[in-house]
Amino acid sequence: MTYIAKTFNLPTLEGFSEKQIKVHLALYEGYVKHVNLIMEKLGAVRAGTLELDPYIVAELRRRFAFEFDGMRMHEYYFEQFEGEKGGSPESALAKAVAEKYGSGENFLAHIREVAGTRGIGWVVVYADPVAKTLHTTFVSDHEVGQLAGLPVILALDLWEHAYMVDYVPAEKKNYIDAFFANLNWSVVEKRFDATI
Ligand SMILES: [Fe+2]
Questions:
Q1: CB contact at 8 A, 75 and 155
Q2: pTM above 0.70, yes or no
């Protein structure tokens, strides 16, 4: 099989230029392309139709997680902007948020604080169906530091390519404002509902 780049049905996004979104989507498509390329090469090695130095094979296996997570994390990212903005204070997510963070405002403040981590990466909010709680973490390289097996319910891209067409690094805060202005909380709630 091969992965196919998704087409996202994005509304007009406040605080993002068309160019910013276009270059970011092109970057996402690059991840999909490279996932397929690595799968193809490793598949040929398995089938015995391609012989590569074992060091190269090992490096391709390591790189696979970088390309795959880059692909999947961007799907989480762009899907969050799709559809009509919603979100309910009565949702199961709102209850889980209140339990861990005290309130929705505290949750947002916490995400912003984590987003202030120096360097490139992602703020990722996971649901842990085992402990019935949420975890908000900073993942630098997206293939390292993810929490095993936990579903991602929110992904905030903080790699500079996500905002540097529209904002300079010192304006990262403005990008985060734009992210939240466009985030469809119903998508996040649905992801959380699927975990309980
Ligand atoms: Fe990105």
A1: no
A2: yes
